[in-house]
Amino acid sequence: MAFPQDNREYIRRIGWFGWFFSILVLGLFCRLWYLSIVRYDHFLSLATRNQIRSVPLVAPRGEIYDREGTILVENTFGFDLLLFPYQVIDPKKTQAYLENAIDLSAEEFYERLDVGRSYGRYQPVVLKQNLPLTQISYLLARSADHPELEISERPRRSYVYGTLGAHLFGYMGEISANELSLDIFRKRRAGDLIGKSGIERIYDAELSGRDGIQKLRVDSLGRTVELLPPVPPQSGESIRLTIDLDLQKATEKALEGRVGAAIAMDPRNGEILAITSRPTFNPNDFSTRISLSRWGNLTSDSDRPLQNRVVQNTFAPGSIFKIVMAMAGLEGGLLNPKETVMCSGSKEFFGHRFRCGARSGHGRLDLKRALQYSCNIYFYELGRRLGIDKIAAFSRKIGLGAATGVDLTGEAPGIVPSREWKKKTTGMPWFAGETISVSIGQGPVLVTPLQVALVLTTISRGQFVQPHIRMDRNSHNVQSFPQEYLKPIKDGLWLAVNDSGTGRAAHIDGMEVAGKTGTVQIISRTTLEKLPPVQAAKFKPNAWFAGFAPMDDPQIVVAVIIERGGDGGRVAAPIARDIFQAYTQKFFKTPESLKLAAGR
Amino acid sequence: MHPSKNRHKQWGQLSRLAQFDAQLLAVIVVLAVIGLAGIYSATLHGANPSFFSRQLSWLVLGGVSFFLVAAGDYRWLTEKAHLLYWLANIILFAVLCFGKEISGSRSWVGIGGLGGQPSEFAKITLILMLTRQLADFGDRKLDLKHILPLTLTALVPIVLVLLQGDLGTALTYLPILLGIVAVIGFRLRCLFVSITLAILSAPVAWLALKDYQQQRILSTLDPSIDPQGIGYQASQSLIAIGSSGLHGKGLGQGLQSQLGFVPEIHSDLIYSLLTEEWGLIGGTIILSLYLMLILRILWVGERATDRAGIVLVSGVASLLSFHVVINIGMALGLVPLIGIPLPLLSYGGSSTITFLIALALITSVYRRRFLYSQI
After folding, report:
1. Which of A197, A208, A277, A319 is catalytic?
2. Could you tell me if the ipTM is greater than 0.85?
3. Whole-prediction pTM value?
4. Would you call A437 a catalytic residue per the annotation?
5. Alpha-carbon span B180 to B174, nearest angstrom
6. Where would I find the beta strands (DSSP E) of A23-148?
7. Which residue has the higher pLDDT, B226 or B371?
8. How many domains does chain A have?
């Protein structure tokens, strides 16, 4: 037991032990320094993300009102089920639970999970909207076992009148990757619902408001430990439209069962009163996530119900274009309204024989009568006199061939053909014969129903206006048109409706309607005659009517097109009449109409 | 020599027996208080509120054991070491057969309401047994034939505890042996032989590991493996420490730890919690305290008056150093999570009492630092 004489060896080794341990402690200190000081910011942000769950408080969108303040689009609140993808530990378990709880298919679950993961780690994805009460209570009872799920009360878009004004309002949808990169959506995040078309899209920034946020401190199991003060959502701005609900209803009703479009507008200021496109859809279907089958039906329908035919589709204007021709002739001084042209049913121009609608001819006609009976020969002659370049220049001057700038999405510019245009698009020179076709609105000239309404607006009051749908938007009447040019044209249009002209079906007692029909063959008449009747019915001409009322102080312009509807005077004019009628009943209180109303 | 004079001298020396090493005691008390503060903070959110009072009672129990052992003579314990050692091994074997299984390992034994982990106390009996074996060893370096019996002595509890499924505790026996052998000195060829043996046995050892143990080792080597799974706990500890900054978040504010992202904050990963709440400063203070503790133990060793004292000191110093470096290394993401406590800070009855007894042995050596050399 006695201690060895020389313990210096041991002491030396104990000293080494001390140094060895000191170096290890120094190493630990360096690591501690590195973690807590050098990488502090990194770990702090990780810690915050760990503990804080952010549930977006979706801002209700602004409401949409008609011109009289009647609510058209509002919000209803429902309970939505949110999934926090990064909290999902066992996807199979969550999926099985959801299949049981809310009948969510495996496919849909994994699709949503993938979508959610693409959002970035800490943002929830909506699994199901508008949960029924039984499912809410089922989910709440088991919420402790499923911290990856959260039930949140959220606003949902509600279109009060269903399909009414569907194309006008547009519809909602989840923002796409493409849209996220657009400047107007720079404040939006993946997963947000945005307006996809129509008013919802154009005024998305105003309508959408600002989402709030509820931050929750959660533990490692995702259970809420503490609610942090919320940032409340700010509702979007409400918007008042120029639309009149009653007129809109009448327009919708008039177009029931048709394929076509109608627009009513106030020529004094460019306010659009009604806008309808058929076939239509129900925008409420898009307020909750639309089912694939319903979406498939909408997109595969050959009549394209999602398209707003008033601005997105272009059509040959047919005889409606004769109004433009008359204006061009009068303005250029190449046409004397008193001058007459002889119509014998057909006439040869540039080596081709062109026919009039009336086979036996209209006889001798001046401008008024030519418009009243829609005589082709008269306008062929005028077209030959003007030439394509003057026709094109004037068409552009009154707004054809370019988007009107109305506050709706996807507006098509239409086409105003000219030498230059043809050279550019086909590389071929312009043939003089083509000018003759263009003179009656056939051939390559294409317009939207809105552009047609605008031409009528210009005629009716002799001034250009900016068409618009949002009420607060100021409209500037830019340019006036000399009244004396317009008189004979307006007279012709009045005769067309009120003196057994082509538009007589639009006549209303007690209201001076003036207008013009158009009937546009979509295949040539000779081909049509060869087809069996069933086939032929599918290729009936497009029917147009465009007019204004009342004659002496125009307050409403209406343009109607019925695709493959048949004769403009027989099909489109009665629809326009219904719209004029509705307007008259509501707004037009002349002594006569009051007397009529009292007499009933 | 005059008997009465001699007696007088002895009394003078005996009066010194009453002296405990004040510096060592101070470090122990400060660490225990810090540990209590940490456990208290852990109980504010999540951890069982009784942990604080239980730890307090174990510290009292450990304190009593400390003074009993420190007042006694380590040479007496060394002489009886073989009895204690085999008693411990028998109990370890019994635990293996009848013990209670807690979180995957069968290392817990309980009678009535009392219970404990014999594998903790076996650390002390192993140190004492090795001391006994080396006490009469001459002034030579250890050769293979000396090291073999020492290795066998260590292997018995290692194998028993490994069979219990407690890899972490089994690993703590190894540094006891290595530390003692290193301080006593060994011939170079022993090093080569043991390295060769270690390399040869490594694949066998790897296969013997449980799946989750293999995963833990892999995830430490590459933390990007499955951050939500095995490496999750380790990465959460890193986040807790990394988000603390210089001053930390304050007592009870270590939310990363508190909200359950870091597991075992009251026991194995208490360093994460304390550092999250007290920052770089707190973490550094704890490291410094352990440095002071170990260096003080070694200081006592340098003044030991017999070989048994030297061996005891090296065994205890190795054991504590290993715990400190590995445990804090775990919290800092440098070492796989193997589940060994931080001396005097971590919650736990058996371990706290074991560490206090080990330190009592050091005190016992300290108190006899003048006795034998001068007689």
Report:
1. A319
2. yes
3. 0.65
4. no
5. 10
6. 52-57, 64-65, 71-83, 125-128
7. B371
8. 2
